[in-house]
Amino acid sequence: MASRRVPRYLERLTPVSEAIQIVASRVKPVEEAVEVPVWEAVGLVLAEDVRAPHDFPPRPRAAYDGYAIRSSDTPGRLRVVGEATIGKIDVKYRVEPGTAVYVSTGAYLPEGADTVIPEEAVRREGDYIVVEKEFPAGKNFDPVGAYVRKGQVLLPRGHVVTMLDVAGLLDVAVTRVKVYRPISVGIIATGTELFEPVDPVKAEQRILRGEVAETTAKLIEWAIDRYTPWAVVEERILLPDNVETIAWYLTRQMRHLDLVILTGGTGPSDVDPFYQLAEMLGGEVLFRGLFVKGGRPTSAMLLPGGPLVIALSGHPVSALHGFIRLVYHVLKHMGNVVRGVEPPLPAIAELAGDIRAKRPQPVKVKLYLEDGKLYAEPLPLERQHSSVTVSNCEADGLAIVENRQYQKGERVPVMIYREPETRGGEKREA
């Protein structure tokens, strides 16, 4: 349950499923909706079912390149009187006895025709075609309403529109859809030791002096852009560990947003903006720490009259784990999403080594394809630590595992960073 008391330390680690339910019970999904041209709806969430406005096709449509004819004229020698091409509904030719009209795939059939003969099934002789066998009526064209019937549900409410959806909808004359407004997000990277890299030479010098280039907030912004297109990062800013400054941004600059994500400064230490902000601003703490390894300090609170605030770890992979386990599902709830378009865990791989997990955690893995199967090979244990950020360069993805022992050969969900290596020619040892 959410608490008005601000836990100073991570007194209870909340299971992920419970944390998602807590947020869903306290945060309402967006309700505002607007009608937009369908080609502007990619990545947005449908606010109502999309129904076909017409029977489609509205007239019979050729399914092949060929000749529109009267079936009663076959077999026979027919005069070609013109052509009907795709994109024109007003065909000026009519198929009379003994005649044919050339049609391209998708073209509307001329009046009088009741069948289409594929181009390769006839012999052309100047302005005539020779049909050597009988063709029955109703062949090789799509009748009225063959694609969709008026009123048919094409896409359901809560569906995230893709470019393929747009192609399909426009093909049957759906040109407008009603969508929910995007979820507005702000990201605040916290840490006095952090800096925004601009100049490569100066950045190198600052890193060697002990400063840290900010990457975690950028990573979360990338994840939101990549996996939750119905949410828009309106602002991302880097702030020092100064609670008054962070509070000003939360209550002034970002108050109008739906969600603000804090990265860094979330652990049970003296530098703990989440704890201090909750006390200072009277935030309702929804949970304080997740039962996970890598992202354990992940917390959430509601500000009075303000946005939902989720605090993530300052370590990139730990923060990404928090996104995968929690933020992704919260944004689905807030956006009324029934099914995401491209979840961050799109693949299943077979483990090429053992994993022992005491809590749900991400495991950096190398990925490779062999004999048509995807394998995930865990990096050595010493390369898994959050502090060894450079090992991210060695990994091809993350295996997302639960709190148990995994044996080599088991299948696990993986988030893929890059195309797996292809290995072949050698048999794997049992």
From TrEMBL:
PROSITE patterns: MOCF_BIOSYNTHESIS_1. Residues 186-333 form the MoaB/Mog domain. InterPro entries: MoaB/Mog-like_dom_sf, MoaB/Mog_dom, MoCF_biosynth_CS, MoeA-like, MoeA_C_domain_IV, MoeA_C_domain_IV_sf, MoeA_linker/N, MoeA_linker/N_sf. Pathway: Cofactor biosynthesis; molybdopterin biosynthesis. Pfam families: MoCF_biosynth, MoeA_C, MoeA_N. Gene3D superfamilies: MoaB/Mog-like domain, MoeA, C-terminal, domain IV, Molybdopterin biosynthesis moea protein, domain 2, Molybdopterin biosynthesis moea protein, domain 3. Keywords: Molybdenum cofactor biosynthesis. This is Molybdopterin molybdotransferase MoeA. It comes from Pyrodictium abyssi.
